[in-house]
């Protein structure tokens, strides 16, 4: 008999259980992997704080790299920022605070042409005077909200013992020379960078309310009541810090010397007229002295030099000079369109940078208030300070040129009591 064949069911049916085992193994592996992957997911959630820490470290590293730069480079960077940001910028570090407080910063600002005007205002009181500095942000901003500031926006500084004497702006400083009630030879200097006073060498002659001007880097003082018989002009050399009298005019002690818009003019007893050459230090006779369009009536009027051109204001008109002749700046009706400028108005001119001139003037402004129980009104006289920025342009016609101007803005800065007086304008 043939042998019966063995059944292969067991062999055929064995693979399915193996698949189940494999599936079970895969499920167990997947569950184990999922269990093992849970902490990995938690680490992914905690990654953003690590990035923030890295960002903080990178910013601090950038700041430390800035501190590694030389002070000259950091000072040049700070000089290109507006002065209105210096107060908050000085809180960054002690190094930045010391650089902002250093006088070298303003020297760099003037070298790169990034200067801003700063006004000096004096309050005349019966017993003493008070000095203030107007925040430059009021001058440089457009004051778009239309609000006029008051005296509370003035920064007080230490007053000088010389009250109501002659003041002259020289670079970053204001020189105060002579006396008011009595003649004095004392000279005090206010540094706008540090807002501190210092003593300068005394003049050779004690004077009372003299006239002064800055011509070719030297201070010239003319006139003023003196105790001595002669009040001959003096010149102060800023480099050597010394006073010297001007050369005489052929031993003529009766010659009269006047300051006319940055020029020294003299008339002798023989009615001869001379002009002083500040570069050569000598007097030169003038055959026909031309009166510059009525500007002789304003001998100590405001003037400034922009791009080697002298500018002044006469009867509300901005004028410019060439070889002793004066011409009006075209394109402008009046510098001070509002208010009306009279002989009581103080006008200051300053170089605003970028071919622009800054005109600052004040006016007397009256305010009326009703009085309870009476028909009359109380009149309070204040002083309102105005500011105008004018963009200048030279237009050439062959070998000749004309100066044109365009008013960029003109607005009132602040209103102060009548006892306040505008002294000078310094660009820092």
From TrEMBL:
InterPro entries reported in the protein's UniProt record: F-box-like_dom_sf, F-box/kelch-repeat_ARATH, F-box_dom, Gal_Oxidase_central_sf, Kelch-typ_b-propeller, Kelch_1, Kelch_FKB95
Biased composition (Polar residues): 25-34
Pfam family, one: Kelch_FKB95
This protein's name: F-box domain-containing protein
Organism: Brassica oleracea (Wild cabbage)
Segments for region (Disordered): 1-58
Ranges where the F-box domain occurs: 63-109
């Amino acid at each position: 008999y043939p042998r019966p064949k063995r059944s292969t069911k067991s062999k055929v049916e064995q693979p399915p259980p193996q698949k189940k085992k494999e599936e079970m193994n895969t499920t167990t592996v997947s569950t184990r992997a999922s269990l093992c992957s849970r902490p990995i997911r938690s680490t992914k959630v905690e990654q953003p704080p690590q990035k923030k820490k890295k960002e903080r470290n990178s910013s601090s590293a950038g700041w430390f790299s800035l501190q590694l730069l030389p002070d000259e480079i950091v000072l040049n960077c700070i000089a290109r920022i507006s002065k209105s940001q210096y107060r908050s910028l000085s809180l960054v570090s002690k190094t930045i605070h010391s650089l902002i407080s250093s006088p070298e910063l303003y020297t760099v600002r003037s070298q790169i042409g990034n200067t801003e005007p700063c006004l000096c205002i004096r309050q005349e009181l019966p017993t003493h005077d008070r000095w203030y500095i107007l925040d430059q942000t009021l001058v440089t901003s457009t004051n778009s909200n239309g609000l006029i500031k008051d005296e509370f926006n003035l920064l007080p500084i230490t007053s000088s013992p010389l009250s109501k004497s002659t003041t002259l702006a020289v670079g970053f400083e204001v020189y105060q020379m002579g006396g008011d009630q009595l003649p004095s030879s004392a000279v005090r200097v206010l540094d706008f960078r540090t807002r501190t006073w210092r003593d300068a060498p005394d003049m050779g002659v004690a004077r009372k309310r003299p006239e002064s001007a800055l011509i070719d880097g030297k201070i010239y003082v003319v006139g003023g009541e003196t105790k001595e018989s002669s009040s001959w002009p003096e010149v102060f050399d800023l480099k050597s810090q010394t006073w010297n009298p001007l050369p005489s005019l052929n031993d003529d002690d009766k010659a009269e010397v006047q300051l006319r818009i940055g020029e020294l003019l003299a008339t002798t007893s023989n009615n001869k007229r001379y002009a002083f050459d500040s570069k050569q230090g000598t007097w030169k006779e003038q055959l026909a002295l031309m009166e510059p369009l009525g500007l002789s009536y304003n001998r100590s009027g405001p003037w400034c030099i922009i791009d080697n051109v002298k500018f002044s204001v006469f009867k509300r008109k901005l004028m410019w000079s060439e070889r002793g002749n004066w011409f009006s700046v075209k394109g402008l009706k009046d510098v001070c369109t509002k208010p009306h400028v009279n002989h009581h108005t103080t006008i200051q001119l300053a170089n605003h940078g970028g071919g622009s001139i800054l005109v600052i003037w004040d006016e007397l402004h009256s305010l009326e208030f009703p009085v309870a129980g009476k028909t009359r009104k109380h009149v309070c006289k204040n002083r309102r300070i105005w500011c105008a920025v004018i963009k200048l342009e030279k237009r050439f016609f062959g070998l000749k040129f004309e100066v044109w101007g365009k008013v960029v803005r003109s607005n009132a800065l602040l209103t102060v009591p009548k006892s306040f007086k505008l002294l000078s304008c310094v660009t820092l």
